Amino acid sequence: MAVPLGLWAAVRTHYGRRRGTETAFTTLTGTAVAIPEYLYGLALLLTLSLGLSLLPPAGLTGPASFVLPVTALAIAPAAMIARLARVETLRELDTDYMRLAQAKRLPAWRLYVVHLLPNTLTATLTMGGLLLSGLITGSVLVENVFAWPGFGLRTVEAITQKDYPVAQAMILVHGALVLVVSFLVDILLGILDPKSSLSASTRRGAMRRLLRNPAGLLGTVIVALMVLLAIVAPLVWEEAATRMNPEAISQGASAAHPLGTDALGRDLLARTLVATRLTLGLAFLATLIGTVSGILLGTLPQILPRTAGRTVIAAVDQLVAFPAFLLALFTAVVAGLGAQGACLGIGVALAPTFARLTHTMTATVAGSDYIAAARMLRVPRNRILARHVLPNVAEPLILNTAQAMGSALPGLSAMSFLGMGVQAPSYDWGRLLNEAFGHVYVTPSVVIAPALAVSLAGLGFMLLGDTFAKAAAHSREASGRPVAPVVAPARDEPVPDAVLEVRDLTVAFPGDITPVRQVSLTVREGEIVGRVGESGSGKSMTAAAIGQIVPYPGLTGSARLRLGGVDLDGLTDAERRKLLGSSLAMVFQDPTSSLNPALRVGRQLAEVATLHGGATRPEPRARAVERLDRVRIKQPADVAKRYPHELSGGMRQRTVIAMGLMNTPRLIIVDEPTTVLDVTVQREVLRVLREAVDQTQAVRG
Q1: Which of 23, 282, 516, 550 suits a disulfide with 214, CB 3.0-4.6 Å?
Q2: Which domain holds residue 510?
């Protein structure tokens, strides 16, 4: 469900229905990721089991007993995969091969399922394999909620009781599972991605964009509210949070106590508000420990000798493979139960991720020319690291810190929920959940306040981290709604023998951006018409407007736009798709990105003849081989079976031309087809285009 949901959200965002879909999707999936698994377990237990009596509340009594625990474990990973699928889909939708697929007028299902989905599955499949560790971590908590005698519960018992042989055996089993799943993921990646085996800031206006983004504004408000509560709540509600009332023990919601009382009659709402300071303070300290120690570990290989650096990298890799929450539990037991041990444990669990991220980025920067120049000047390694490397990787690390805060907070709450974090008389949100869990079957409302606090705080930091990441990637929201340019209809008579007639073609984007203004041209049969202009003058956008593939939020308008004597504006969508798919061919300037990397060459050519030429098997494949031979590709039958990355640049460009010739088009639009090719290949491509025009009697623009 996660991958189709992410694809659906990306398509709606990309093609215009942006505001509502993006905000709702980001908020809902961010909420789903931010809420810990054990809170899902509590919510499902209270609603579907205790409230509606639809499913058994605990134990293993049959197949129905699996529904609630599996659902609680699946929600957060599914939301994470959906978010990743949306990001990957948006990235792929902006590629040239998707624009070419749109220019071929493929049906929507084929466009998304055949061309788009295989290229987005690689990242989501990789994420799914990595989430295995998180699922086992979640089972540690969910099994406590549903009283399952499973892997997670046994592991916690072994660690808390210091039964190290059993704990080591559990961890060994987990490592074996991770290795097996990783191996299976690699096999699937090799099937889905034919290239998988190959080796292969401005900050101005960032806060303005942050506050203009509804999700970013929501995250900012939540985090600001939490920080304000951490400062004010102990001063205002400390007395109410500690006052015991024997006459109001374990009561439900009432006028005096809106969210009920605990086993000593203390107000749960006041205790939740006061616990904000300790919860946020511990989360901040744990994030600081994880960030600083991770950055130090990640930068050590740049300072130490090569052998010592490789040893550090190997140690970091082993820590990354270790289950993060189990590492936190183990560290807390060794350091001692309590707030300090839990804080240190979460910090140690965060450190390997930061170390791996830091090492990857510093290794990339270390290969830059300015670093080589500094080494030639005999600048000491520590100074190169401090002055040249770290400043260039600081921004991603800062962004990751905001999201790490969102992970540290529910992690610490989970430790306290298990009884291994904050100890009485101190209390944080997790400790409040631990104390309330024993009364949840009698008074379910006692878990509402701390559970809601954990969820809201995690959501706030998650949304804030996402928004910072967007700002750092310089992603700009379109300012204002797209408005179609107003162009007066042409009053003169159409040119009778024109294959293409364009009058006052205009393309407009929000923000008063008009890259194409009142372009007019006429192309008759047998003519070759060239449009000359400097980079950024709108040549490619003009071609996209004629082919009706201007990306959102751009809109087009024209006084007249006729192809083959037919007015495109007067056609239905189906009629326009049929006409453009059979009469128009487009060749983009970058052949590498114009072909779908997940599909074989012959299949990409054949689908044009199948969809628009009415051909049936095996005719489309034979025609694809014939067209490849026509554009002077040697051994065309063999080339048709290859993937695009197995061809040279010139062969890829000629393949794109052959694709355009599959249905004998009347007009071929060529967008700088020789830009990325060497001089010899340029001459060959131009000769092929000239021959194609002569053979098909098409015109070229």
Answers
A1: 23
A2: 478-567
Are 344 and 483 contained in the same domain? Answer: no
Give yes or no for residue 477 having a pLDDT over 70.
Answer: no
Paired tokens of 528? 């070759």
Q: What is the pLDDT of residues 450-460, one digit of tens each?
A: 888 888 888 88
Mean pLDDT computed over 479-508: 80
Q: Do 99 and 165 lie in a common domain?
A: yes
Strand order in the sheet with 667-670: 584-587, 667-670, 699-700
Give the C-alpha distances (Å, rounded to integers) separating 573 from 87, 107, 255, 440, 580. Answer: 28, 11, 61, 57, 11
Residue 55 CB burial class (10 angstroms; 0-12, 13-18, ≥19) = middle
The torsion region of residue 503 among left (phi > 0), alpha (psi -120 to 50) and beta comes to: beta
pLDDT of 91 strictly over 80: no
CATH code of the domain in which 519 resides: 3.40.50.300
Q: Is the pLDDT of residue 205 over 50?
A: no
> Domain containing 276 — which CATH number?
1.10.3720.10
Q: What are phi and psi of 521, to 5 degrees?
A: -160, 155
Count structural domains, the chain.
4
pLDDT confidence bin for 481, thresholds 50/70/90? low
The pLDDT of residue 612: 67
Has residue 140 got a pLDDT over 70? no
Residue 343, pLDDT above cutoff 70:
yes
- In terms of domains, do 190 and 218 share one? no
Length of the chain in terms of residues written: 701
Q: What is the DSSP string of 45-73?
A: IIIIIIIT--S--SS--SGGGGHHHHHHH
Going by C-beta distance under 8 Å and a sequence separation of 6 or more, which residues neighbour residue 206?
Answer: 471
Token output for 548: 């009706």
664 conformational bin, left if phi > 0, alpha if psi -120 to 50, beta if neither: left
Residue 614: exposure state from Cβ atoms within 10 A (0-12, 13-18, ≥19):
exposed
Domain boundary among 171, 200, 229: 200
What tokens were used for 450?
């701390």
On whether the CB atoms of residues 129 and 179 are closer than 8 A, the answer is no
User: Which region among 2-11, 60-69, 197-206 has the lowest average model confidence (pLDDT)?
Assistant: 197-206
